[in-house]
UniProtKB/TrEMBL annotation:
Principal subcellular localisation of the protein: membrane
Coiled-coil spans in chain: none
Catalytic residues (UniProt): 166
Protein name: Ectonucleoside triphosphate diphosphohydrolase 8
Binding positions (ATP): 206-210
InterPro entries: GDA1_CD39_NTPase
Cofactor: Ca(2+); Mg(2+)
Length: 493
């Protein structure tokens, strides 16, 4: 009996010793440990003049010098045309967004959806509709807002971006993606890059075009100046948006000018369309926006026949007439009398600039003379030759000459690039895994206004000490259980 008592006492003593050791180990070298930051999400609809796209962004809940480190995790192109095309069917505009919202909900964790800021930004297409019929524009916005509110997100409104906002947010996107604003260093920290020049941004949409850059001189016209503070650094930028100079509206203005130069006859000879190409269109298809007001004597239903003549020299002459290159005294300007300092530094040209030059295989830093020769050579090809060479692109094939020459005119005569600065333009649509456009810049700037979440902290210690404490706790439990089991067993005997 005495032997059994000693065994139980020994086991109980071991239990106590193991427990004390575990307690000591668990109290040694305890520190406050911050948990990894949570993730926030944001949704931005880009409601352009030709189409709408939804972008899903995420960023850590803590920020670097007040601005989030944002990445694109999903994108979705909405079926159909831009929301401005639903002026006579506003409910259709709202319904068109729902499949992309469903796709976004599959990406964002359910518990975070209700706190996901969601925006819809409309650009030049809705600017034109608002000028044309403000009531219809409001109805479209009401329907898209209603559709978005049916989803469990923090919808913060639909708005029409100003041209300067569209241009400057595109500039933020370009420079963020190309790491001129902030960069992850070898030291494992986010840092402002030293001795790095920011890049300019060139955007060509369907209804407007934007130029934004950091000039080397004081900006003389405050209406073209914008100031941003990003990652603790201030940026003073020149930016301007030219409404009605997007590629679609410019093409319509050109068609209307050719029609008017021909004394409004039913047959239009188009020097920018390939020789042998012909199409019919109504007056309403040409004169359908504030950029191209309808002459009162024309019937909207009247059908016109457009015949291509494939004459690049005459095409360029006609395109030049769309611009007013007169500048005021003692003033540098781009066109239409708008102040613009000389272009400076490297530029990224995206959207319509990229799509057309990509088709023409001109995105590889070719010289201005090579680009000019390539576009003119394309414009000299007849329609049957083009269809045989590019059978998959027949729908838009007749437009590449007019848009190609328009881009050259806009960049060289309008924005004042020359043979020396031309190679500073980089034509691209993506950088890293993200699309270049205004939406990412919008979300980055927005994170300046979203409060930073305080990092959660817990008590923690070295893994080896923690493992040792757990081991002695297990030993104490085992010793205690064995003592209890032996005591019970011997008592029953």
């Amino acid at each position: 009996m005495e032997y059994k008592g000693k065994v139980v006492a020994g086991l109980l003593t071991a239990t106590c010793v193991f427990s004390i050791i575990a307690l000591i180990l668990s109290a040694v070298d305890v520190k406050d440990v911050f948990l990894p930051p949570g993730t926030k999400y944001g949704l931005v609809f880009d409601a352009g003049s030709t189409h709408t796209a939804l972008y899903v962004y995420q960023w850590p809940a803590d920020k670097e010098n007040g601005t989030g480190i944002v990445s694109q995790v999903e994108s979705c192109t909405v079926n159909g045309s831009g929301i401005s095309s639903y002026a006579d069917d506003p409910a259709g505009a709202g319904a068109s967004l729902k499949p992309c919202l469903d796709k976004a909900m599959a990406v964002i964790p359910v518990e975070q959806q209700w706190q996901t800021p969601t925006y819809l930004g409309a650009t030049a297409g809705m600017r034109l509709l608002r000028e044309q019929n403000s009531t219809k524009a409001e109805q479209v916005f009401a329907e898209v807002s209603k559709a978005i509110r049916e989803f469990p997100v923090d919808f913060r409104g639909a708005q029409i971006l100003t041209g300067n906002e569209e241009g400057s947010f595109g500039w933020i996107t370009v420079n963020y993606l190309l790491e001129t604003l902030i960069k992850f260093s070898f030291a494992g920290k986010w840092e402002h890059p030293q001795n790095t020049e920011v890049l300019g941004a060139l955007d060509l949409g369907g209804a407007s075009t934007q130029i934004t850059f950091q000039p080397g001189v004081t900006i003389e016209d405050k209406n073209t100046s914008v100031l941003f503070r990003l990652y603790g650094t201030n940026y003073s930028l020149y930016t301007h948006s030219y409404l009605c100079y997007g590629q679609i509206q410019a093409s319509k203005r050109l068609m209307a000018a050719l029609h008017q130069d021909g004394s409004y006859v039913q047959n239009i000879s188009h020097p920018c369309y390939p020789k042998g190409y012909q199409e019919n269109m109504t007056i309403a298809e040409i004169y359908d926006s504030p950029c191209v007001p309808t002459p009162s004597m024309l019937s909207p239903a009247q059908i016109l026949t457009v015949t291509g003549t494939g004459n690049p020299a005459a095409c360029r002459t006609a395109i030049l007439k769309l611009f007013n290159f007169t500048c005021g005294a003692n003033r540098t300007c781009g066109f239409d009398g708008v102040y613009q300092p000389p272009v400076r530094g490297q530029f990224f040209a995206f959207a319509g600039f990229y799509y057309t030059f990509s088709f023409l295989n001109l995105t590889g830093q070719q010289s201005l003379s090579h680009v000019n020769a390539t576009v003119w050579d394309f414009c000299n090809k007849n329609w049957s030759e083009l269809v045989e060479t590019f059978p998959q692109n027949k729908e838009h094939l007749h437009t590449y000459c007019v848009v190609g020459l328009y881009i050259l005119t806009l960049l060289v005569d309008g924005y004042k690039f020359d043979e020396h600065t031309w190679n500073n333009i980089h034509f691209s649509q993506k950088a890293g895994n993200a699309d270049i456009g205004w939406t990412l810049g919008f979300m980055l700037n927005l994170t300046n206004m979203i409060p930073t979440e305080a990092l959660e902290h817990v008590k923690g210690q070295q893994p080896s000490l923690w493992a040792g404490a757990i081991s002695f706790i297990v030993l104490a439990i085992v010793a205690g259980l064995v003592a209890i089991l032996l005591q019970c067993f011997w008592k029953s005997k």
